[in-house]
């Protein structure tokens, strides 16, 4: 293709964000314009000049860039520039067009939206994000310091980004532990955004009755992040290394270690050294945060009170303020003869609390599953996408819906939609539950618990052999209420879990079944 300062990106994730695409372009140089075609998994970036665009295309050919481990294909566009135009008559043209097919020299900056009223807002928002993400130099009161008090549950960098991005564009975040307190430095695009975040979030609980945010302005005007990992991130660059696998948590002088003993106050910049923060989170053993946020925090942020019933499940703060981060999953390729809402509730419930399940009336191989929050929905995708259930590999993606609607009583499809909001089988509803630390990938080995003393190995083997071959079994030596059982295949183990979880074993005992990382 002929050299152009406009580059065409293909094979983007279906739920890619403006920030991620802009961040990719910024790692090569200054970006002057953006066009998102999310419905086609494509985007256009107009670089500052042809030299930067040429460097991006050439470099991508040798070392293809990625977004969330997905390879992105980069090529020159036939278009010479991108121009902003929000006129209604341009909308239909873009909805039907195939990028790079027209050969026109000017591309109209717009996106395939569902309504014309959304169009100008989206364009302005995208351009605002682009401009904000290029303000790397910072300024007075651009950086907030957040201390998390009474932190009973892990607070991840992604949770912080989700919460603070409600109030503006997040450029950089650094997390660390000082004096046994978890803290974070958050650089926002300007002082007005940081002020709004501070006024809105200071004193609020991230989760119900705990993880209280204490926010003040930092003396720093900008953050200089050296590594992109689970402890620090520069959202304007995706070319940073992950750093050495070294944890600062639990160290006596964590901040000093993180900074390598070098905190330069004169230029108001935080320098992050190589021994600082490393990638310490095992992706196969994530910690899912608790499900119930503070109603006070939600009221303060959303302007509405939460339902008064203590049994009614509510969505966690991070998901509500995140904007666009749905907790609803779209599941396809289901075995229509075997899969019921209860089956999906029990299987997906291993990785989060399922609130509602809807099997499509017209196409029963598809379903919508509403988890308690986006974090739990992402964990379901991570662990169950592609896993076989009744001979068919599950295909799981985030849905465009924000919630699953219940049908009216008496409708024929009513039995295909179930509300599990108040189910006693939720694994993560109880704060402090050990289930948060015991989430593992599907495996042939199952962990059994809540076994009464009179239940024998022979009885349990017989129950599980109804659904496959049992190749191993053992009670825990120190606690006979628990056992491990190994099935002959992963698919058999999954069927056993969705069938035998909550099996009644006595007057007050119901079997609990989950995946195990152990071996027999």
UniProtKB/TrEMBL annotation:
<feature type="domain" description="RRM">
    <location>
        <begin position="444"/>
        <end position="518"/>
    </location>
</feature>
<dbReference type="GO" id="GO:0003723">
    <property type="term" value="F:RNA binding"/>
</dbReference>
<keyword id="KW-0694">RNA-binding</keyword>
<dbReference type="InterPro" id="IPR035979">
    <property type="entry name" value="RBD_domain_sf"/>
</dbReference>
<dbReference type="InterPro" id="IPR021790">
    <property type="entry name" value="PTBP1-like_RRM2"/>
</dbReference>
<feature type="region of interest" description="Disordered">
    <location>
        <begin position="284"/>
        <end position="303"/>
    </location>
</feature>
<dbReference type="Pfam" id="PF00076">
    <property type="entry name" value="RRM_1"/>
</dbReference>
<dbReference type="InterPro" id="IPR012677">
    <property type="entry name" value="Nucleotide-bd_a/b_plait_sf"/>
</dbReference>
<dbReference type="InterPro" id="IPR006536">
    <property type="entry name" value="HnRNP-L/PTB"/>
</dbReference>
<feature type="domain" description="RRM">
    <location>
        <begin position="327"/>
        <end position="401"/>
    </location>
</feature>
<dbReference type="InterPro" id="IPR000504">
    <property type="entry name" value="RRM_dom"/>
</dbReference>
<dbReference type="GO" id="GO:0006397">
    <property type="term" value="P:mRNA processing"/>
</dbReference>
<keyword id="KW-0597">Phosphoprotein</keyword>
<dbReference type="GO" id="GO:0005634">
    <property type="term" value="C:nucleus"/>
</dbReference>
<dbReference type="Pfam" id="PF13893">
    <property type="entry name" value="RRM_5"/>
</dbReference>
<keyword id="KW-0677">Repeat</keyword>
<protein>
    <recommendedName>
        <fullName>RRM domain-containing protein</fullName>
    </recommendedName>
</protein>
<dbReference type="Pfam" id="PF11835">
    <property type="entry name" value="RRM_8"/>
</dbReference>
<feature type="domain" description="RRM">
    <location>
        <begin position="5"/>
        <end position="79"/>
    </location>
</feature>
